[in-house]
UniProtKB/TrEMBL annotation:
Positions contributing to S-adenosyl-L-methionine binding: F76, E182
Catalytic activity: 3-[(1-carboxyvinyl)-oxy]benzoate + S-adenosyl-L-methionine + H2O = 6-amino-6-deoxyfutalosine + hydrogencarbonate + L-methionine + H(+)
Cofactor: binding comment: Binds 1 [4Fe-4S] cluster. The cluster is coordinated with 3 cysteines and an exchangeable S-adenosyl-L-methionine.
Species per Swiss-Prot/TrEMBL record: Limisphaera ngatamarikiensis
Named cofactor requirement(s): [4Fe-4S] cluster
GO MF terms held by the record: 4 iron, 4 sulfur cluster binding; 7,8-didemethyl-8-hydroxy-5-deazariboflavin synthase activity; aminodeoxyfutalosine synthase activity; iron ion binding
Radical SAM core domain span: 56-289
Record EC number: 2.5.1.120
Family, per entry: Belongs to the radical SAM superfamily. MqnE family.
Pathway: Quinol/quinone metabolism; menaquinone biosynthesis
Function: Radical SAM enzyme that catalyzes the addition of the adenosyl radical to the double bond of 3-[(1-carboxyvinyl)oxy]benzoate, leading to aminodeoxyfutalosine (AFL), a key intermediate in the formation of menaquinone (MK, vitamin K2) from chorismate.
Sequence positions that bind [4Fe-4S] cluster: C70, C74, C77
Record InterPro entries: Aldolase_TIM, CofH/MnqC-like_C, Elp3/MiaA/NifB-like_rSAM, F420, FO_synthase_su2, MqnE, rSAM, rSAM_sf
Annotated protein name in UniProt: Aminodeoxyfutalosine synthase
Lineage, broadest ranks: Bacteria, Pseudomonadati, Verrucomicrobiota, Verrucomicrobiia, Limisphaerales
Length: 387
């Protein structure tokens, strides 16, 4: 067990973390602005170990973006296109089903599906999509739509948000994605995503979904025009909703990608900033069990390092990712399962394949490693015990 010098100014916060206490906004901001990275990492690693032990997880999943046509014009977004643009795309239901069928053949357990706010697709397109995907396999988990997409679909269907979510769930929706949270502060939101849903609307969509018994993830986009206090305020609002509903299964901090958009940033997120953000997220979000280091945005090696700064999850195999790569991400499009297991094992953690709710499916024995096939399940793998 690591201990901090009794003379250190951080001793009271260390004791609080050690005993499972809750950080105030002022304490979190003080740590964020003034603590050295080594101290933050050790504190966050202690908090992580208290939550999940020595395990680190990943999921075998596939991303599908059904379209990038969008009626919004968020300054930070490199993904969205207008109908007049020459490089937009829109998948038919048959094309989506074909991608899902290929993914199932590779052992995928989750489809992560989001898109732009399409100007003309009817509500039935989305419910038909969910039903068609569920027909392929009832066990396939459909994690779909951001909060702003749900609001857009409610407008299309001329239904309340609750009735829209009910219709989507009846069609096959299993959980909501956490995208679109960006930064909750209204001035920052106005600067980067004018016309997008407010923080209150984002939170209300997830609140309604949680009250219906649904689960979701949540995110924060950092490293653009926001300040440290805006990040802490963002985390405060997520922590408050988690206190209220308990419906978030994990938090995913997302580093801003600066290319090919209308939001110039002279100093995009560095590795140092990313690790500090990961550590503070773990320390402040004491009612979250899981913090994900999104390797697509961080790159595999930095995501691996983040496992020592509070993160306990590397996300998934992905297969095909557009949003971050259209903004300049240089990470691979796909991470085969054996590489995820290897990254986790090299970090000193025990690799665990999980489901969409971060529940363990299997724990890899020390002597086992998936082969360099796209997806492989060893006969010797032992089922994981609940953490």
């Amino acid at each position: 067990m690591w201990s901090i010098r009794s003379s250190s100014r951080w001793t009271p916060l260390f004791r609080k973390v050690e005993h499972g206490g809750r950080l105030s906004e002022a304490e979190a901001l003080d740590l964020w602005c003034n603590a050295d990275l080594h101290t933050l990492g050790r504190l966050a690693d202690l908090a992580r170990e208290r939550k999940v032990g020595n395990r680190a997880s990943y999921i075998v999943n596939r991303y599908i973006n059904y379209s990038n046509y969008c009626i919004l014009s968020c300054r930070f977004c490199s993904f969205a296109r207008k109908k007049r643009d020459g490089n937009g795309f829109e998948l038919t239901l048959e094309e989506i089903v074909a991608r899902a069928r290929e993914a199932l053949a590779l052992g995928v357990t989750e489809l992560h599906i989001v898109g732009g706010l399409h100007p003309s697709l009817p509500f039935q397109y989305y419910t038909d999509m969910l039903r068609a995907l569920k027909a392929l396999s009832p066990q396939l988990h459909l994690k779909c739509f951001t909060a702003i997409e749900v609001l857009h679909l409610a407008w299309l269907a001329r239904k309340s948000v609750a009735d829209t979510l009910l219709a989507l769930r009846e069609a096959g929706l299993d959980s909501l994605t956490g995208g679109g949270a960006e930064i909750f502060d209204p001035r920052v939101r106005q600067a980067i995503a004018r016309g997008k849903e407010s923080a209150e609307e984002w939170l209300e969509v997830h609140r309604i979904w949680h009250r219906m018994g649904g689960r979701s993830t949540c995110t924060m986009l950092y490293g653009h025009v926001e300040e440290a206090e805006h990040r802490v305020d963002h985390l405060r609002r997520l922590r408050a909703l988690q206190d209220e509903t308990g419906g978030f299964v994990g938090f995913i901090p997302l580093p801003y990608q600066p290319d090919n958009n209308d939001l110039p940033v002279h100093h995009p997120p560095t590795a140092h900033d990313t690790l500090r953000t990961m550590a503070l997220s773990r320390l402040y979000l004491d009612n979250f069990d899981h913090i994900t280091a999104y390797w697509v945005g961080l790159g595999p090696k930095l995501a691996q390092l983040a496992l020592h700064y509070g993160a306990d999850d590397l996300h998934g195999t992905i297969v095909e990712e557009h949003i971050f790569h259209m903004a300049g991400a240089r990470s691979p499009q796909h991470m085969p399962e054996w590489q995820l297991v290897q990254l986790i094992r090299e970090s000193g953690r025990v690799p665990v394949r999980r489901n969409s709710f971060y529940e363990p499916i299997l724990e890899w024995k020390a002597s086992d490693l998936p082969g360099p096939a796209e997806h492989s399940v060893p006969a010797a793998a032992e089922p994981a015990q609940s953490p």
